[in-house]
Write a structure and sequence with these properties.
By secondary structure, the chain is mostly beta strands. Helices cover about 10% and strands about 40% of the residues.
Length: about 80
């Protein structure tokens, strides 16, 4: 993880974020690992009326998941 973090910069701008660090999960049933960095994906087809794409990660079960946005404390990062 330290090699990956060396190439990332903390950001609060979801539009430029490329990765997310799961700090804590609020529900133990979530298939994510606390302290792990996940690459972000975007569903452009699900863009809201404001033009924002929906963010997802590939969870520990190998499935696309948006649940982390609501059920985890997280930090967003972008490529340097």
């Amino acid at each position: 993880m330290s090699n990956l973090l060396a190439n990332l910069t903390l950001t609060e701008d979801f539009d430029t974020a490329t990765h997310v660090l799961i700090k804590t999960k609020m529900h133990q049933g979530l298939k994510v690992t606390e302290g792990k960095i996940y690459e972000l994906g975007r569903w452009e087809a699900n863009a809201s009326s404001l033009g924002e794409a929906e963010l997802f990660i590939i969870n520990d079960d190998g499935r696309e998941s948006t649940t982390f946005m609501l059920c985890c404390k997280k930090e967003f990062y972008k490529q340097k």
